[in-house]
Amino acid sequence: MSSVTSTPSLAATGLDRPPASPWWDELRATLKLSAPLVLINLAQHGLVASNAVLLGRLGAEPIAAGALATSLYLLLFIGGIGLTSSVAPLVAEAIGREAGAASGAVRRTVRAGLWVGFLVTLALMPVLWFTEDLLVLLHQEPAVARDAGSYMRVLQWWMFPALTFMVLKGALAALQRPGPPLAVSLIALPLNLALGAFLAFGPPDLGIVGVALGTVLTEFLALVALVLVIRLDRRLHRHRMFASLWRFDTEPLARVVRVGLPMGVAGIAEAGLFEAATVAMGTFGTVPLAAHAITLQIAATCFMVPNGIGQAATVRVGRAYGAADRAALRRAGAVALWLGFGFMVACALVQLLAPRTLIGLFLDADAPGAAGVFPVAAGFLIFSALFAISDGVQSVALGALRGLQDTKVPMLIALFGYWGIGVPLGAALAWGAGMGGRGIWAGFCAGLLVVSVALVIRWRRLSAGRARGPSAQAG
After folding, report:
1. Where are the membrane-spanning stretches (predicted)?
2. 3-class DSSP assignment, residue 368
């Protein structure tokens, strides 16, 4: 647009306004794709958040038990998500490289992702069965550990339908068709709340177990609905996503694992940081643990937005990567990073200015033990606001790097930042400096800051020199 010879005049083109800047085009494309992905993330996280709301109505001890069980479940589940999330960049790269001829690659990649999700579920469910014994070994209060174990023995059946849903969501996002999983997710959220409330407080009166059962039933129904929508969508017929699902194709499965395994390890590294913090918080008593659980729910809800933007960046960068378009690749990453940064600044301000309002969304002020939880949670929210910006930036940077199928170095960065800095510093401040739970949250801030800065530097370096995907290079 800066060259007179390369841009026709308005009179010659007959246009009423100059052609749009490619940066504005990228912003619109990113917003168009990320908006439904953000809503899907919020709806899916809403399953966990609504469970926390229901548990909060049961009292401080149930919400503490639910926090322990949920954090352990998510620690392992996020590893599975990391493995299966490789479906999105691989499908995006295939579409960018082959355009309309990529149906075979899409089908094989989706099938491999579904197999990986099934195998991960088989490996992890036996571990989750012994949650109570594990928590007792970690010096959690026996009553809380017992309730957490009962909760987990139902919740663990959530893993298979949830991972399968994630594979299909990633493939549809790469095809720039996020509408079906969005519609299903928006219906699933109120259904989960209704089923959980009925099973926990209604005639079945199952308490904490009823909350978990409501989520499991909701996820299975959501998966069935998404499969039906995909099969009935004529625009998706050519990809034949569910053809020959019994085939165990080693080559596409190896690609899914090769790209996804470092993503899974990085996810576990981050989730493990929060799981370690939750277990450590439990040693300070039920009140700090309940306050920590509420603060995590608030932080995680904010995080769903940059996470969705990062998923959009994976697709936008991945398509440009497959098409060997370096300029488009860099624009996609830069636009996504600034969007994520701006939103998390706003979230941090809300956490600082309205802490009691946010806490009240997750805890009934009249529930048993609630009076002592409010001030502790308000103190934790100060630290949550501080690390919100770093958390958002690192999520978007990870998404952009995944579009380049760069996952090994980000994994090492995550391991170093979270476990080399965040955990030891948090422990030193919590016990050595006598800060208690606030010290653990300070460790979060430090670890996430290091990771976010390192990932942005990594993105800037790679995006300046990498334009073609490995499949394109291999022919």
Report:
1. 63-91, 112-131, 155-175, 182-201, 207-230, 335-354, 374-400, 412-433, 439-459
2. coil
